[in-house]
Amino acid sequence: MPVTDPRVDAYIDKAAAFAKPILIRLRRAVHKGCPDVVETLKWSVPTFEHQGILAGMAAFKAHCIFNVWKAPLVKAQVSKAAADAVDRIGRLESVNELPSDAVLVQIIKKAAAINEAGLKVPRVPKAPKPPARVPADLKAALARRPAAATNFAAMSPSHKREYIEWITEAKAAETRARRVSQTVTWVGEGKNRNWKYERQK
C-alpha cells in the first residue's frame, strides 16, 4: 500500500499555478512505478522513499525540479528515452516538458529495483590537487630562516597550501608582507596555519 503524506498535498496546494500540474503528474507516476512508495518531506520538499530515497521534487518561482536519487545507475539500466528524460526532468518550467507517464514509470520502477538490490552509486575519487606554488616573497623569507625552511619542506601539501593561500589572498602589500613574516615565525615554531584552533593535547 502506498503511504501518502498530507504535507505533500499541502506543498502542492501552495505551489505556483504552473507548478501544480507538474508536481501532480510526477507524484502520480511515482506511485504507479512503485506502489509501496512512502511519501515524506526531507529538506522541506516532497521526497519519495522505498528502501531508501527514490526521488524528490520541489517547486520554485519559475521552475520545478525532480531528482532521481541514484540517477547514474538508473540511466545505465533504462531505455535511451528514459535515460535522456532523467536529465531533462532536472529542471521543468511547464507540464509540457515532462516525458510520458510510461517513461516516468519506467524510471521509478528501475530506481525502486536498484534500491531493493542495495546498489549504491560508486564514488568517484577526487583528483589530487597539484602542489601549491610557493610565492617568491615567501621563498625568499624562508631562505633567510633555515629552520623554518626545513619545517615548511616537511609540511603536508594541505598545510603548505593553507599558508600560501593566506598570503596570496592579502589585498594590500603591507598585509601580505605581515603575513609572510608571520608565516615564517609560525613555521619556524613548527606550527600549522590554524594552530590556534587545533585541539590541545
Number of strands: 4
| Average pLDDT metric | 91
Q: What is the number of domains?
A: 2
Fraction of residues in helix = 40-55%
Side-by-side strand order of the widest sheet:
1-2-3-4
Descriptive notes:
The chain is elongated and about 75 Å long. The chain has two domains: 6-116, Aspartate Aminotransferase, domain 1 (Alpha-Beta Complex); 136-197, no CATH class. The chain has nine helices and four strands. A hairpin with a 4-residue loop joins strand 3 (53-59) and strand 4. It is an alpha+beta fold and 201 residues long. Helix 2 (19-33) crosses helix 5 (101-116). A four-stranded antiparallel β-sheet has the order 1-2-3-4.
From the structure above, extract its key features.
alpha+beta, Aspartate Aminotransferase, domain 1, 2 domains, 4-stranded antiparallel β-sheet
Layout: helices, strands, pairs:
Layout: H1 6-14, H2 19-33, E1 38-42, E2 45-49, E3 53-59, E4 64-68, H3 71-76, H4 80-88, H5 101-116, H6 136-143, H7 146-154, H8 157-168, H9 173-188
Antiparallel strand pairs: 1-2, 2-3, 3-4
Helix pairs in contact: 2-5, 4-5, 6-9, 7-9, 8-9
Give a concise summary.
It is built from 9 helices and 4 strands, in the order H-H-E-E-E-E-H-H-H-H-H-H-H. The relative contact order is 0.10.
